[in-house]
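Severity: low
Component: inverse-folding endpoint
Summary: output formatting inconsistent between runs
Steps to reproduce: submit the following structure tokens with default settings.
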């Protein structure tokens, strides 16, 4: 059975590009347009990993991680943060992100990071 990945990004082009790339690598992909809808989609689909944009209008990545950790305390679901800025890496790692990639990220690096996190799960 294919591992399920939740992609949360408010940019429809980025969401679609990530979805196509991950599906081509054998993953089942579900998507959400922002942090609030991401929490709902997580509840409905129970993905194995979350790919999270930082800058979103309804709930940014930082708020998503804090809310997720509070709501699903004790559950281990790796979160990969995607952002255009490299300056927040330490903050997100301290908050619970398992990996941090700067946009635009290399597709091969993204898939390798996902494989490593799912293998160590």
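Observed output (run 2 of 3):
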């Amino acid at each position: 059975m294919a591992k399920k990945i939740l992609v949360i990004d408010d940019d429809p082009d980025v969401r679609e590009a990530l979805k196509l790339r991950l599906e081509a690598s054998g993953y089942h992909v579900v998507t959400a347009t922002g942090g609030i809808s991401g929490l709902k989609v997580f509840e409905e689909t129970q993905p194995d990993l979350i790919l999270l944009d930082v800058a979103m209008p309804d709930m940014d990545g930082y708020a998503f991680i804090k809310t997720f950790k509070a709501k699903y305390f004790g559950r281990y679901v790796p979160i990969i943060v995607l952002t255009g800025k490299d300056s927040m890496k330490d903050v997100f790692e301290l908050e619970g992100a398992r990996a941090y990639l700067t946009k635009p990220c290399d597709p091969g690096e993204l898939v390798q990071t996902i494989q490593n996190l799912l293998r160590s799960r």
